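The material for today's practical consists of a large collection of protein records. A record pairs a protein's sequence with a compact description of its fold. Instead of coordinates, the fold is spelled out as a row of discrete tokens. We will come back to this pairing of sequence and fold again and again. Here is such a record, shown just as it appears in the course material.
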Amino acid sequence: MDYTVQSLGAGSPASKSVRRRRIIEALWGYLFLGPQLVGLLAFSLVPLISVFVIAMVNWDGLGPIEFVGFQNYIDEFQAGSDMFIALKNTFYYTVLAVPLGLVLALLVALALNKVHGKTIYRILYFMPFVTTSIAVAVMWMWLLNGDFGLVNVFLKDWFHIQGPNWLTDSNFVIPAIAIVGIWSGLGYNMIILLAGLQNIPATYAEAARVDGANRWQLFWRVTFPLLSPTIFLVTVLSVIASFQVFDQVFVLTGGGPGKDSYVMVYHIYKQGFERFQFGPASASAVILFVIIVIATLIQFWLQNRWVHYEA
């Protein structure tokens, strides 16, 4: 035993071999992590820090940089600023898209949870999410056309209703964009909720049926509480995505008619890449970032009232 301990001492060949092996393993680990770390720094951390810096200056991307402090934020909060229009439209879109999208995704997940061939249905429902957003928006631009779009044709032929000009009517433009957002994100939310449903042990439902629970009681008293952590996750992700809506607006309406679909990210785009006002654009981006953080924190604060985690 004494010889063994001595052979593994700090200066022994065996100890040096162990240290050398650990160093080599660490170097290989850093080598494989290197590209990801460089990408994280280059495309996430550096831009995040830069936007806070640029928000304090006036800069057109090429000319001299002028430090203005918090003036860009003050200008954004001036009465009549486009930012308030963008915020109003963004909140309106969020109120429409998040609850309706969540309910539809939950209904589809419940329907697919017990059917055969659910893998095929998963693929079919998930395809819109992996399709490029520009292609989705172009397709829906044709479907929502007020003159010959299939949506209005369907409404007229089946319900004898004259459909509106979805993308040019100020009363329907945000609901139309919300429809596109719900449709494209339905498969993603459904997949997460379906995974949550399949993770619920069948013994809970069997015990509830033995106690005489009907379908509604089974869902409301058993399934929903056990699924609430998954629903919470989908809600948080959906709210964050809704505040960042841009592609549909850019392709379908360009912020119009007037500024009735002028949302926050489109506002940032207009300032930064059309007017080359990178300071105000960065200030708007910081404001949007703070709003998203506050909205997320509120949801985490409220989760204790309705989210149930298994002990």
In short: Residues 51 and 282 are 5 Å apart (CA to CA).
